[in-house]
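Database export, one record per block. Field names are fixed; values are copied verbatim from the stored entry.
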Amino acid sequence: MNANALHGIGMTSQRTRARMIERLREKGIRNAAVLRAMAAVPRHVFVEEALASRAYEDTALPLGMGQTISQPFVVARMIELLVNGRTTLGKTLEVGAGCGYQAAVLAQLTTEVYAIERLGPLLEKAKTNMRHLKQFNVRLKHADGQLGMPEAAPFDSIIVAAAGRLVPPALLAQLAAGGRMVLPVGTAEQYLSLIERTAEGFVETRLDPVRFVPLLAGTQ
């Protein structure tokens, strides 16, 4: 591909990314740091080449292996819940790294991101994408996300990109005092849950209805 073609793709990406940010504002995302983080990450890098023209649509897109890259609004909404009222996400754990898109957005808001993916081929995709973007503050691990990452705990922020029937106890145990976790919960009907760890214990707030792939045990 010649330089003119590459320049054209870059310009198109910038315009479509700007439209995506405007849609996020229209749908209620208000945190300026979150909007800047979403604008900073080129989503087209993380989707299949055949779907690149749809990368900035507000929709989930298939990644293969029954997985998806999450809808931009849902990514922004979950991260906004984590960051609101705080200057940084602090040490952050992501469960369900997929192709690495959400981890790359998180990495704009903190210096330490730990991301777990249970599917080996997707983890390799995420590693490739992080190298491409020179995103070196994301540590990726092939593991069962329900078990978290005890060797790096506790975490100030935890975000989960798959829905379990219940909140995994290991993730609760790895949430730091004063920390926040956002995750989808449920099977046929799912909702976003915001969990905060206070001096008195865990406080849960149930929020938007959502639809995520199931949180499965083990690795492949």
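Remark 1: The radius of gyration is 17 Å.
Remark 2: Residues 147 and 170 are 5 Å apart (CA to CA).
End of record.
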